[in-house]
Amino acid sequence: MNDQPVEKSPYVTLNLGPTHPATHGVFQNIIHIDGETIVDAVPTIGYIHRAFEKIAEHRPFYQITPLTDRLNYCSSPINNIGWHLTVEKLLGVKTPKKVDYMRVIIMELARISDHLICNSILGVDTGAFSGFLYMFQQREHIYEIYEEVCGARLTTNIGRIGGFERDFNETVYLKLRKFLKEFAVVLTEFESLFNRNRIFMDRTIGVGPISAERALNYGFTGPNLRAAGVDYDVRVMSPYCSYEDFEFDIPVGTQGDTYDRFMVRNHEMWQSLRIIEQALDKMPDGPFHADVPEFYLPPKEDVKQYMEALIYHFKVVMGEIPVPVGEVYHSVEGGNGEVGYYLVSDGGRSPFRLHFRRPSFIYYQAYPEMIKGSLISDAIVTLSSLNVIAGELDA
Amino acid sequence: MTTAEATSLLQPFQDQFRTSIVSVDTSSDMVTITIDKASVIPVFKFLYSEAGLSFQFLTDLCGIHFPDQNPPVLGVVYHLHSLTRNIRLRIKTFTPVSEPTVPSLTPVFESANWMERETYDFFGILFEGHPNLIRILNMDEMTDFPMRKEFPLEDTTRSDKDDTFFGRKQNNAL
Lengths: 395, 174
Fold this sequence. Notes:
The structure holds two protein chains of two kinds. Chain A is mostly helical. Chain A is built from 17 helices and six strands. In chain A, strand 4 and strand 5 (338-345) form a beta hairpin. Chain B starts with a helix and ends in a 46-residue tail after the last strand. The A-B interface holds A 45-46, 49, 51, 53-55, 57-58, 89, 214, 216-219, 230, 232, 237-238, 318-319, 326-331, 338, 340, 342, 344, 349, 353, 355, 357, 361-366, 394-395 and B 27-30, 32, 56-60, 62, 64-65, 77, 79, 83, 86, 88, 90, 109-111, 113-115, 118, 122, 135-139, 146-147, 151, 153, 166-168, 172.
């Protein structure tokens, strides 16, 4: 205990977190309140910092994919594929069209699962539990598709540098078609529960607003920026994975408040469904991975039979293959915004430096400004609609 | 937008700041300009407000450590994005490890606040003029800067990790 006299403050200090259920993750907010009104808030983060950037400097490229899983764990396939695209950019690998389309399907599924968690939990925070139950059933169906593609559900480690470890099988296509049909019904139902719901609108309209100018200055990206009225989407501004082949809209809001963020995410789920449908219809034939034997593990049966495959297997696992010296930045549109990878390679088996641009980390710093002057219950709803994911926040 | 187009757009900027620019590299995925650290603020203000450029979005800010250079240096890498022109630009600035100070970008970009705190936390780069330069992800009691290359990944007292044959030295020494 220090003996210094405590400065008498007219405000009450409230500890929100680090393990409060309404914070949706391990982070703390020390809030000063005047009655029910928030005067100031100080966020403390770093409770689940796992030093991924340091670990990545000691791992070969393909072993970094599982680290990216654990950034935004609500949409890990986007992180995985973003990392693969970064490495491919460094190596100068051109992927076949089929790989791009498969990746687009997986990434859009991930976007849906990310948005549906955010929106349904926002419902829970405003007192509507039933939407959450309907939507979580659908997340289960998305996870079943992941499971069919890569064997994992939450931390997927999906795909490889150059493409996928195996082709989509018949079950994947069946489940995708079934999901497209069923999810459209559930999403319509979900929207009819929320969009014009008087209680929900009262709780969210005008809550936690941010202007377009402030949002840009604070480095907002993704649905939170688009809700403020800026139509910035990485998929359109710097297309990757053949996104230019697909027809889709970018929903934008006007007020940048919680209701707009909710609506933008809802519309994006519809757009994602549209993209998946187009990708399925236009799915080209061809190989499911690029021809990069130096980085893509050969099939196990070949390793047992052919000398060349055995050598490549050994070299890939041991990280014996020289990579180009250089630096690249690549970004993809993640669930929360621009997920970027800044990779500096000195030609060694592991990156010289790898930095993750984590959208939540960058926009969460605007949170005190967004909740100043509002009520505690509004602060919870604002936090929920920002969709701050602790794993991404703390890397 | 191709690198060539971006280079021609950036020509007025290069003319104006000829003395502050250390090098211009167009070989990587985007134009990379290394600048003198003293001119960080004027450079970013110019890039922000110049009508033809308007680099008004700070995508990323991170540190980097080159211990093998003479003298050893710490660098700050900024990624800027002009949303109206859709050009990305990488700006770098370096400072010797013995004097790790770089002007803070918080007067121009609000988003630089936490990114600079993170860079300070991991590299020990002191951002002059930052309103609240304290650690953000690591605990406050920490005295090291863990992303510097000399900081070991694992506990140095471990003796079970001598895998020289796997490309690493004992205890992951450098």
